[in-house]
TrEMBL record:
GO terms for molecular function: ATP binding. It comes from the Bacteria. Residues 2-225 form the ABC transporter domain. It comes from Mucilaginibacter sabulilitoris. InterPro entries: AAA+_ATPase, ABC_transporter-like_ATP-bd, ABC_transporter-like_CS, MacB-like_ATP-bd, P-loop_NTPase. Belongs to the ABC transporter superfamily. Keywords: ATP-binding, Nucleotide-binding, Translocase, Transport. Coiled coil: none annotated. The keyword ATP-binding applies. This is ABC transporter ATP-binding protein. The lineage of its organism: Bacteria, Pseudomonadati, Bacteroidota, Sphingobacteriia, Sphingobacteriales.
Length: 225
């Protein structure tokens, strides 16, 4: 599904290159559920942002679904992202001024789905996540766990093949976190969604099929579960 080859990311600080990712190579097959771990500052979010095309590497090759992403223009990359990728953030990133319904609907508007289609798809998602009763509320009127469910529903609404999650349970209590992890497991096993999550939790990491440990912008170790 995706391949990173000799990817580096650096920032110039007083004329020196400060490497955040250092000659990192990674292949991900469709159907995998990968957990990325590592100490703070080891490059986990930077790696996820490059995989998710929110950021570009400084060097190296990036292939996704038979496209050479490193050669694409911004507009083509964004089209590829919209077609294939859903992103879940630790801080939810919901739009405060939009209702639950409208937040979930947003990606479909960007993708030019028709009104009737959009209504059916959002209704489906609300139902699936048991949040029909919350559809007219605003994010501030929801608990953290509910906000994250809305964030996940929004990430999944356009049926992405790849779900990326940056500490999706970071702001949740352990029960809410477990529910989200069970949901990820189901998405991966039953719907075949490929998942890559960044986590600090050993327990959450073990929901994955492979754990990758980063250290100083390199893959220090990789363990198949
Ligand atoms: N725009 C930037 N300019 C300079 N340095 C940056 C920039 N963005 C990130 N970095 C640096 O990149 C390094 C890796 O950051 P990253 O967020 O990927 O780490 P992380 O492993 O996800 O950490 P955490 O677990 O704390 O979230 C950090 O040292 C950070 O300071």
């Amino acid at each position: 599904m995706l391949s990173l080859q000799h990817v580096s990311k650096y920032y110039q600080v007083s004329g020196l290159k400060n490497f955040v990712l250092n000659d990192l190579s990674l292949d991900v097959d469709e159907g995998e559920f990968i957990s990325i771990m590592g100490p703070s500052g080891s490059g986990k979010s930077s790696l996820l942002n490059i995989i998710g095309m929110l950021d570009e590497p400084s060097d190296g090759y990036h292939y996704f679904a038979d496209h050479a992403v490193h050669q694409l223009k911004e507009k083509q990359r964004s089209a590829l992202y919209k077609q294939y990728i859903g992103f879940v953030f630790q801080a939810y990133h919901l739009i405060d001024e939009l209702t639950v319904y409208e937040n979930i609907e947003t990606p479909l508007i960007y993708q030019d789905f028709k009104g009737t289609e959009r209504r059916a798809m959002v209704a489906d998602m609300l139902d699936r996540f048991s949040i029909v009763g919350k559809k007219d509320l605003f994010p501030a009127q929801l608990s953290g766990g509910q906000q994250q469910l809305v964030g996940i529903a929004r990430a999944l609404i356009a049926k992405p093949k790849l779900l990326l999650a940056d500490e999706p349970t970071g702001n949740l209590n352990s029960k809410q976190g477990e529910e989200i992890m069970e949901l990820f497991r189901k998405l991966n096993k039953e719907d075949g969604v490929t998942i890559i999550q960044v986590t600090h939790s050993e327990k959450n990491a073990e929901y994955g099929s492979r754990i990758i440990n980063l250290l100083d912008g390199r893959i220090e170790s990789s363990k198949q579960l």
